[in-house]
Amino acid sequence: MLDGQSPVTAATMIDRFERIRPLLAEQSGRLDADRRLSDEAFRALSEAGFFRLLLPAQLGGCALSPLDFMTVVEHAAAFDGTIGWLVGNGGGMSRAGGYLSLEAAQAVFVSPSAFVASSTGAIGKAVPEAGGYRITGRWPFASGAPHATTFAPLCEICDGSGRIVLAFLPRGAVNLIDNWHVSGMRGSGSWDFEADNVFLPAEFVCDLQPVPTQTGIVYRLPGVSAFVWTVATVPLGIAKGAIDALVSVSAGHRRLGVSVPVAERELVQAQIGRCLASCRAAGAYLRSAMSDLCASVDSEGADQVAARINYRLACSHAADVAVGAVLRVNDLIGARSLAESQPFERRERDVRAAAKHIAMSAEQFVIGGRHALGGDISGASF
């Protein structure tokens, strides 16, 4: 919860999002050109609590449930893929407040505009030293880097154990590299960052699969699954936004050479019906898989491996479905979908970019099939 208010739910956050929607709509046109969220949009989202979605209530966070979190991220992504992506990343990494000691968490999240940018795209080095570690490395894809106050890369402890940790580095300890020149998710500011022999006190380092310092299922989810979960519903949100955009313009829109408005064409009606059915089914599977994963974490002796694999299958399947839905919508609307002034072209670029994230890799279909057929998955990541 925020500021001693009643417990926060998905409905609470969606209401807050709608209140700032006009400002976000005004700013969203700058995303592609600026390649980052505007200061005004970042301030509005942070003040409304969207980068504290999983932060424990004790630390002034929203402490959303896993399913409520997914609903909020999907709602934001339906408005704009980049904004959904940053809400998922920033709000998702606020779960670090349940991993770190109370004192360390308070230091990381002391500012209302605290934003933790993470990277799982590379593994740096953490050399043990009295009282902490020396951190060195370069990491890509730190979404939200322009506004981040803390950076959380993966590092390997250099003691022969092979132990992988998250290191929470203050902004002043890293060098930022503005190299985010891409086709989709242009406004996410997913820059590289690097650290060179930076000393970090031990209380700001935790295992990738940490021992929680707070109660709640959110903080006990498997480390890899938790990273995936923060952005898993973004593609479905983008697809919903594309469908909504078609609905909003279809009543009066006619494709060249066709006398019947798009909304009145039976072919279009059937295709939109299929898109709605497939996206809703994928969303239901994704939420069911998350519920099963939570239940396996809560149940001693449960087959967590099967639950984790099933969840990753659901994530990859949802991304596949979402990409297909957006492409179908843009085909139905025709040449109008090519115009940058229309609400279609960027959604196609954004959903393709989101689906390329390792969280939704097609490799998960291989792992899921191999596991179902009794194959060896000991070296697989899920």
UniProtKB/TrEMBL annotation:
Q: Which of UniProt's keywords are assigned here?
A: Oxidoreductase
- Output the Pfam families linked to this UniProt entry: Acyl-CoA_dh_2 (PF08028), Acyl-CoA_dh_N (PF02771)
InterPro entries named among the record's database cross-references? Acyl-CoA_DH_C, Acyl-CoA_Oxase/DH_mid-dom_sf, AcylCo_DH-like_C, AcylCoA_DH/ox_N, AcylCoA_DH/ox_N_sf, AcylCoA_DH/oxidase_NM_dom_sf
- Asked whether the UniProt record includes ATP-binding among its keywords, one would answer no
Domain spans labelled Acyl-CoA dehydrogenase C-terminal: 231-361
Any idea where the Acyl-CoA dehydrogenase/oxidase N-terminal domain is? 27-90
Q: Does the keyword Protease apply?
A: no
Q: Which PANTHER family match?
A: ACYL-COA DEHYDROGENASE, ISOVALERYL-COA DEHYDROGENASE, MITOCHONDRIAL-RELATED
**Name the record gives this protein:** Acyl-CoA dehydrogenase family protein
